[in-house]
Amino acid sequence: MTLIHLFFILTVVLYGCATAAYLACLVRTSPPLTRWAGRILSVGFTTHLLSTIHLAVNMKYLPLTNMQESLSFFSLAVVGSFILFERRYKVTTLGSFVVPVALIMLTASSSLHAEARQLPPILQSNWFWFHALLAFASYACFTIAAGVAVMYLIQRYFLKTKHFGALFQRLPSLETMDDISYRCLTVGWPLLTIAIISGSIWSDQAMGSYWIWDRKQTWSLIIWVIYAALLHGRITIGWRGKRAAILSIIGFIVVLFTFFSMKHSITW
Amino acid sequence: MNIVVVGLSHKTATVKIREKVAFSPNNIEKPLGELITLDGIIEGVIISTCNRVEIYATTRDIAGGIARIKRFMAEYHHLIFEELEPHLYSYHAEDAIRHVFRVASSLDSMVVGEPQILGQIKTSYGYAAEFKSSGIILNRFLHKAFSVAKRVRTETRIATSAVSVAFAAVELAKKVLGDLSDKTVMLIGAGEMCELAAKHFVNSGAKGVMVTNRTFERAQRLSQEFGGVAVPFESFLEHLHLADIVLSSTGAPHCIIGPKDVEEVVKRRRFKPIFFIDIAVPRDIDPKVDGVESAYLFTVDDLQEIVQANLAQRSLEAEKAEEIINQEIGQFHKWLSTLEVTPTIVSLRNRFDEIRRAELEKTISGWKDLPPDAEKRLETLTLAMMNKLLHSPTTLLKQTGQGGRVDLYVDALRQLFGLEAPRRDDEELELEE
Predict the structure, then answer these.
(1) Which side of chain B, N or C, has fewer Cβ within a 10 Å radius?
(2) Does pTM surpass 0.90?
């Protein structure tokens, strides 16, 4: 077993433990449990980051070039942004909704096989790396937004049906979740915008046209429009709450769809 | 030495009786002084709050001590003993320790988990310490009670949830609106519950208060109290969009706020959530309002439900607390019972030695031609006899002191040999050693 495999398995195990701890936080209130969940996740994130860097140094390019690498990177970005949001908003329960997603992505990634291969010349452009990094950062923001949206809908359901159980007590306030969701949008959407622009510059370099209306570009544009509409609606007429939550979940589903279908789009 | 507790509380006496036996803190030196001059009472502490009056004391004679304290409570307040007596409870030994630990941990309070009681006991103990009515045992006992209460507070969640309707309203609003510090409350109508809830909201940081009432003067008076503004009742709907929290309790026979009104308001607020609490019967706010996006309506019944759930949660936590208390009782009781082992052994020895010397003296003084070394021999003989006789009870007492019911032996020895009770200073010396 190579070092890279070892790191990888360690990361999966740590994310698994963190997932278990965060799910346990939903059922019982215990400050030590919350602290440990955070610690385990941070350690997992560190090993994940180190193994990604290690891989990048070994291969001399960012590990974003096939489905396996991309899923792992997606999961890294999700965990990283969750850690940032958790620092800022102190919402442990968010972890119960987001960390499992990261775990699933990473596990799925490990089940895929990566063959050693030559990097196609089409990907040897700085614009591509720039584009891909930003795209993943924006996807991570949208993942958090979707997690918060699910929580929002659950909490709203409890409030409207007057069910004041244990989960109701543990979920944050509607306003807090709305705040987080808005923050995700205001960070994620500009990132996506720049990602699309840099992507089209790369497209021009690689294929000679800024916009070729392939599946990837079309779907990226659809995602961009969905989130632009959400952001616009929120700023102008105050779309928030339930409507915003549903739209951010739809947005995320489209993101996932795009992500899993892009493999077929370009020459990989 | 025994700890005894005599008292009454909200569980055994109505407020009418409780207020008659209350001890005023301004004049606490007098009853404390009288308490420790009672026959057989060594140390005493008086706790007097609006929900309970209790006396903690140490005595060697449990039954007599309790009886004298009961009589003292009646006589001090010029009450007829027979009328007061049925309301009084008394505890001794482990039960007394458990009772005081439970009281300090707020398990015996009217609202279980309320935090004031610990402070009240600390203050009462402070007086007893100041006027030197409490000694080595009660000092240690109450400090132990404080630390047990602290443990209960940190290790269980007994004091964390809302158990009043007004407080539940605030907790619920926080679940919708998050931080309340930039929020505005609107009070419609004036009801006691409404005002109380408004006070809770202001205490939790709510920024602005608007008050409206059919009688505008009343609205003005109330708004001054909260440092808010009065709004004419006729136009309150036009101000509704400024409120984040609406508390309504008018005597109106039909609904004064309907879903149409709220839809307007929500639009003007650009879907920022608005939180309604309807306390009025019949209702002020149409139940359909809850169906409006971004509007959240709750009635008193909903709040009551939260309170009930929290109370149930508390009783679960209370079980954990009892467990903690049980652990601590064992420890304290052990300390208390070993406290008297050494002084008892010393006085037992002294008693034997006294008798030995007296008898030796008698024998020698009446002896005419005493052989030269006889006095020394007799001394050795009697001393050896005494030591042999005392050896086994002393060993047993010391071993029992490691755990077990040593107080039984101590009491038996004291009564069998007529030993004097050590004075308080002796005990203090004992602890310093």
Answers:
(1) C
(2) no
